[in-house]
Amino acid sequence: MGSKKGSSLGEAQIALLDEDGASSIRIALKEDEEEELGRRVWVESKKLWHIAGPSMIGRVTNYAILVITQAFAGHLGELELAAVAIVINVIVGFDIGFMLGMASALETLCGQAFGAKKPYMLGVYLQRGWIVLFMFCVLLLPVFVFASPILKFLGQPSEIAELCGVLALWLIPLHFSFALQFPLWRFLQSQLKAWVIAWMCVIALVVHIFVSWLLVYKFEFGVIGTAAAVNISWWVLNLGLFIYTVTGACPLTWTGFSFQAFNGLWDFVKLSFASGVMLCLENWYYRILLLLTGNLENSKIAVDALAICMSINGWEMMIPLSFFAATGVRVANELGGGNGKGAKFATIVAVVTSLIIGIFISTFIALFHTQIGYLFSTSKPVLQQVNNLSLLLVFTILLNSVQPVLSGVAVGSGWQSYVAYINLGCYYIVGLPLGILLGWVFHVGVMGIWAGMIFGGTAIQTLILAFITTRCNWETEAEKANLHVRKWEAQIQPQN
Predict the structure, then answer these.
(1) Could you count the other beta carbons within 10 Å of the beta carbon of residue 405?
(2) 473: left (phi over 0), alpha (psi -120 to 50) or beta
(3) Side-chain half-sphere CA neighbours of 389 within 13 A
(4) First to last CA, the chain
(5) pLDDT of the chain along its 496 residues, tens only?
(6) Angle between helices 299-336 and 265-293 (to 10 degrees)
(7) What is the DSSP letter of 297?
(8) How would you classify residue 44: left for phi > 0, otherwise alpha for psi between -120 and 50, otherwise beta?
(9) Are the beta carbons of 144 and 91 closer than 8 angstroms?
């Protein structure tokens, strides 16, 4: 009996030890998994920030050129501020939206080619980008030439529209600079040379501040001086990037000018056009908000206040747009290399990182909502209206911390044409009519227009993109990317 009892006790102890051992193994495995996950997040974050960090510096300083231009104009007078705000946010914003969108095709092509270890294809893609964007610069030139009658037709006050027309003519050199700069930017980013862009943008910003002071205050050229300063600083940036690229800094990807850039040009135009439509539908959305506000009563104050909010939002938007670019490159690199799981993981890390930053900035705006307008104006009615709009600005920043990153996934995966339809439906079939309904039918004014466009358009579009991304079969996307690279490679022969 004692023996059996001892035996039973021994078996119980062994079972307990076995259970403890299994539990320890499970704990150890869980710890190993957590360590492995932490290591993967750290590695992916470094890759992401290697692109997003310098891109953020570049985009913030680049956009600061336009913000500082509005700040100089704001201290010249309310009319000058309204005119510069409309030209930059509507005319130039319309232009940037389309040209930037068309250039984003290079993020898909260059990113996937670089990931597939085909660096010689990038230089040909760059030249195709220059050709296509220059052609569209010529096609879009009437927007600048006839800016004044266009704005009058859209309901802007005659006095503001006339001054906008003069400024738009002065900004034609800026318009053509986009055809050179935007492809160069994507070409360098795709091969992880984003720091070059960042340093050149900082130099251009310093030049802009000095030239703006010189032309506006020293030589007293007034509002025309602000436009001339933008042209000068932007071309300093362009020439710096161009000289860096063609003088031997990119030996594997730039092998000189080639007639191969004209091969397969139509296919490139189609992809670029789809990319342009995708981003410009989104970019124009908030420009239309500014135009609609111009038709309200006391429109000068409303336009000035909304322009200030849009400038703050646009400046902050450079951060999620940096993650847009970085996510596009990372997803394209992983898909081009045949790693679908890597593309999915890069997407998750990018969305979470951008959202955390968005929450922080939204909180900052909410805490200092009464002070943010002083950077642009000292007019009490304008500052009061900015304070009233600050809550909507907070929601806009929060939504925009996620939506551009998901658009970056679309660009890296080559989904531009599908997302263009989503943007069209969400923004112009749902959001815009809802904004008009709240603004005029329910007489909520500029707050109603903006609120309807945020919650009716941007929020729904973000939810749809999130659904598509979570339901994506990444291994299938990697196979598609491989087929695309081989298709485009057939049109390009390596040069010695």
Answers:
(1) 29
(2) beta
(3) 33
(4) 90
(5) 445 545 554 555 555 445 555 566 666 556 666 677 888 889 999 988 988 888 888 888 887 888 888 888 877 877 888 888 888 878 888 888 788 878 877 888 888 888 888 888 888 889 988 998 999 899 999 999 999 998 888 777 888 889 999 999 999 999 999 999 999 998 998 888 888 989 999 999 999 999 999 998 888 888 899 999 999 999 999 999 999 999 988 888 898 888 887 877 787 787 777 777 777 777 777 767 767 776 776 667 777 788 788 778 877 888 888 888 889 889 988 888 888 889 899 999 999 999 999 999 999 988 887 887 877 777 888 888 888 888 889 999 999 899 889 988 888 887 877 887 888 888 889 988 998 888 888 878 788 888 888 888 889 989 999 999 998 889 888 888 888 778 766 766 555 4
(6) 150
(7) T
(8) alpha
(9) yes
Q: Which two tokens stand for residue 168?
A: 């738009």
Maximum Cα–Cα distance across the chain: 111
CA distance 459 to 279: 16
Separation of alpha carbons 290 and 283, rounded Å: 12
- Give the Cα separation of 103 and 181 in Å (integer): 9
Structure-token match 């329910």, residue found: 442
Six-digit token string for 146: 């006839």
The encoded tokens of residue 292 equal 């609609």
Answer yes or no: are the C-beta atoms of 197 and 190 closer than 8 Å. no
DSSP character string of 79-99:
HHHHHHHHIIIIIIHHHHHHH
Q: Answer whether 70's CB lies under 8 Å from 315's CB.
A: no
Q: Return d(Cα 405, Cα 465) in angstroms, integer.
A: 10
Polymer length in residues for the chain: 496
What one-letter code names the amino acid at 435? Answer: G
Query: Is residue 466 helix, strand or coil?
Result: helix
How many other β-carbons are positioned within 10 Å of the β-carbon of residue 368? 10
